[in-house]
Amino acid sequence: MSVKKVFVLFASPNKSGYTKMLLDAFTHFAPENAVIETAYLYDVLPQPCTDCRVCKLENTCIFRDLDGIFDKMQSADLVLIATPVYHYNVPSPLKAVFDRMQRFFEAYIVRKEERQRQTEGIGVLLTVSGRKATEPVKLIQKQADKAFNLLGIRLSGSVHMPETDTRVDKEALKQAEDLGREIFENN
Ligand SMILES: Cc1cc2nc3c(=O)[nH]c(=O)nc-3n(C[C@H](O)[C@H](O)[C@H](O)COP(=O)(O)O)c2cc1C
Fold first, then answer.
1. Which pLDDT tens digit goes with each residue over 110-124?
2. pLDDT tens digits, 131-181
3. 131 CA closest ligand 1 atom index
């Protein structure tokens, strides 16, 4: 497989902050023919899940605002989650996306319906935080892993850039560049 379609869930309200810096490092070695599409979740402002129970019966949602995002997550070769740490967790628009994926838990895990995805996708998590945030990052890795799994995507790597309050961690930028290069060259 060659990684051509890349879809980014971008969870910072700052389109040119540290999250973007880390994302740019990751995509630095993307081939010219790769198509990278980004969903800015602070523009989307996903509806939060209201536990209406509709998805317990059918793989659908009473809110349609994430239909396009979920389609792209299921058709992209590589899905990136790029997010800052907010209050020991992810910012609320990304948390809303994770909650809204309950429909896939009901469909694929509980009812064992066939997934839309035919081939396993590659998932990558990029996180940034003002302080060290070691524990929150572990939690976010778990959340991303579970969310990716629901759609048949394997969390294949993650990079964290800590301490943005006081410095730019060049080592993290290098790690992101290396991970990007490895994924784009070997898949
Ligand atoms: C509402 C809010 C909550 C935050 N909570 C945390 C936190 O719990 N731990 C932490 O290390 N940094 C926290 N930060 C700092 C951000 O993670 C940090 O500034 C990050 O670089 C922002 O990324 P950006 O430049 O892409 O927007 C918080 C920032 C905001 C605005």
1. 999 999 998 999 999
2. 999 999 999 999 999 999 999 999 999 999 999 999 999 999 999 999 999
3. 11
pLDDT tens profile 12-50: 999 999 999 999 999 999 999 999 999 999 999 999 999
Q: Could you give the count of Cα atoms lying within 13 Å of 131 in the half-sphere of its Cβ?
A: 8
- Rounded distance, CA 179 to CA 27, Å? 9
User: 160: CA distance to ligand 1 center in Å?
Assistant: 13
Q: Ligand 1: distance of its center to the CA of 84 in Å?
A: 6
Beta strands in the chain (DSSP E): 5-10, 35-40, 78-84, 121-128, 153-161
Sign of CA dihedral 96, 97, 100, 105: negative
Residue extents of the structural domains in the chain: 5-186
Which token pair is 28?
Answer: 């630095």
Residues within 6 Å of ligand 1 by CB: 12, 14, 17-19, 84-88, 128-131, 133, 136, 164
Q: How many CA atoms lie within 13 A of 182 on its CB side?
A: 11
Atom number, ligand 1, closest to the C-alpha of residue 132 = 11
Sheet holding 121-128, edge to edge: 35-40, 5-10, 78-84, 121-128, 153-161
Predicted TM-score (pTM) above 0.90:
yes
5-186 sits in which CATH class?
Answer: alpha beta
